[in-house]
């Protein structure tokens, strides 16, 4: 018997996230587990008069394919897929990898080949399709969260079905304030960073492109970032878990970078010129996500957090930075993580993870939950 929460999640994805209409094509891509949700999405897509298409990816096989890939092979994939994506109107990605370190030993140069060749298609998808990315509750995710499988499933569905309409309304005053802001200052343990967001658009994320959701993002003026930032959550990228990441900036560029894997960190940041500049600054507010679980779809939405992203900027909040890298690094500013402050043009807007600006109190956890 189908878990009714899966049916509700499918409904939300089709109606709220990708807003699927009759006659539209939707690609449903399952990366690992998640077949039950995919099946329900197919059923509901047909009921809406749309045309569902499904790809099921085994991540161990994907690893084997990537280990010895080449630019020529990636070129074949690009030529085959380009016409298909031109016909798609929506894209739903269900990430349910049984082992999220499956790709950890794929050489960086092999990853870069795939990323560089496929970048035009990925850019087309993010710019022109209605898309959403979500994780599927797996035992490995429950283990990372230090929860039982059933307990994590309960947590997952609570997080994914939060009242996003209420959240979006609460975001509007912050969006207005960010539109009027020039200088941002981030302060905390090992962190004193300044940058400008003047003239850069900002985007509310309340259940459309990511599930779970709960952030507002913009980007710094590319050359304006100055100072040092230290991240207090683990960050997984290219299959490696990084901790104690510390970045120092001069005129927007990362000039020093250290972590538990300093050499590999710098190897990624040297992927291309844009990887040492920042493409995104975002503030997280999801009231049900309080602690990191080494899953960026959850961690970047943590209440009382922000993330700062080396690499590619989003088209909707574009500072001109281009890169094959887009690496969200998270800092939590609640007291149990060391505290911290966010200042806009010399005015304190958030302290120790709670908004103190009168217009923004609706974004605090107690108000988003009630």
Précis, in short:
By secondary structure, this protein is an alpha+beta fold.
Layout of strands and helices, then pairs:
Layout (H helix, E strand, L loop, with lengths): L3 H14 L7 E8 L2 H13 L3 E7 L1 H9 L3 H16 L3 E7 L11 H21 L1 E6 L3 H6 L4 H12 L3 H16 L3 E6 L2 E6 L6 E3 L4 E2 L3 E4 L7 E5 L4 E3 L2 E3 L3 E5 L2 E6 L3 H8 L8 E7 L11 H4 L5 E6 L18 E4 L8 E4 L2 E5 L2 E2 L9 H5 L1
Describe it for me?
By secondary structure, the protein is α+β, with helices and mostly antiparallel strands. The chain folds into 2 domains: 4-160, Thermophilic metalloprotease (M29) (Thermophilic metalloprotease-like, 3-Layer(aba) Sandwich), CATH 3.40.1830.10; 164-369, no CATH class. The protein has helices at residues 4-17, 35-47, 59-67, 71-86, 108-128, 139-144, 149-160, 164-179, 262-269, 296-299, 365-369, and strands spanning 25-32, 51-57, 90-96, 130-135, 183-188, 191-196, 203-205, 210-211, 215-218, 226-230, 235-237, 240-242, 246-250, 253-258, 278-284, 305-310, 329-332, 341-344, 347-351, 354-355. It has an 8-stranded antiparallel beta sheet. The chain has a 5-stranded parallel beta sheet with strand order 2-1-3-4-8, sandwiched between helices. Helix 5 (108-128) links the parallel strand 3 and strand 4. Helix 1 crosses helix 2 and helix 4 (71-86) runs parallel beside helix 5 (108-128). The radius of gyration is 20 Å and the shape is globular. The two termini are 32 Å apart. The model has no long low-confidence stretch (mean pLDDT 94).
């Amino acid at each position: 018997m189908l878990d009714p929460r899966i049916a509700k999640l499918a409904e939300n994805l089709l109606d709220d996230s990708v807003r699927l209409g009759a006659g539209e094509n939707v690609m449903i891509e399952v990366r690992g587990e998640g077949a039950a949700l995919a099946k329900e999405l197919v059923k509901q897509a047909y009921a809406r008069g749309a045309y569902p298409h499904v790809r099921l990816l085994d991540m161990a096989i994907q690893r084997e394919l990537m280990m010895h890939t080449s630019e020529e092979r990636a070129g074949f994939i690009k030529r085959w897929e380009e016409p298909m994506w031109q016909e798609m109107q929506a894209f739903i990605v269900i990430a349910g990898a049984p082992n999220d370190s499956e790709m950890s030993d794929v050489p960086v140069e092999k990853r870069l080949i795939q990323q560089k060749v496929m970048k035009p298609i990925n850019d087309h998808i993010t710019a022109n399709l209605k898309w959403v990315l979500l994780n599927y509750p797996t035992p490995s995710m429950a283990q990372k969260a230090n929860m039982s499988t059933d307990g994590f499933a309960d947590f997952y569905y609570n997080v994914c079905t939060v009242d996003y309409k209420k959240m979006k309304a609460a975001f509007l005053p912050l969006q207005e304030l960010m539109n009027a802001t020039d200088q941002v200052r981030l302060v905390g343990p090992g962190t004193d960073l300044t940058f400008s967001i003047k003239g850069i658009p900002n985007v509310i994320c309340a259940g459309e492109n990511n599930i779970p959701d709960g952030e507002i993002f913009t980007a710094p003026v590319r050359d304006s970032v100055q100072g040092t930032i230290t991240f207090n959550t683990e960050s997984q990228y290219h299959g490696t878990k990084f901790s104690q990441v510390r970045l120092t900036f001069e005129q927007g560029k990362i000039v020093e970078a250290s972590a538990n894997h300093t050499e590999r960190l710098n190897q990624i940041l040297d992927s291309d010129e844009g990887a040492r500049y920042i493409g995104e600054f975002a503030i997280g507010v999801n009231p049900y996500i309080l602690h990191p679980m080494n899953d960026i779809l959850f961690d970047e939405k943590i209440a009382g957090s922000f993330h700062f992203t080396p690499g590619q900027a989003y088209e909707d909040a574009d500072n001109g930075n281009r890169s094959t890298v887009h690496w969200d690094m998270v800092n939590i500013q609640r007291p149990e993580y060391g505290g911290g402050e966010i200042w806009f043009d010399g005015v304190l807007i958030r302290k120790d993870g709670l908004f103190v600006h009168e217009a923004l109190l609706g974004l605090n956890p107690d108000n988003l939950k009630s």
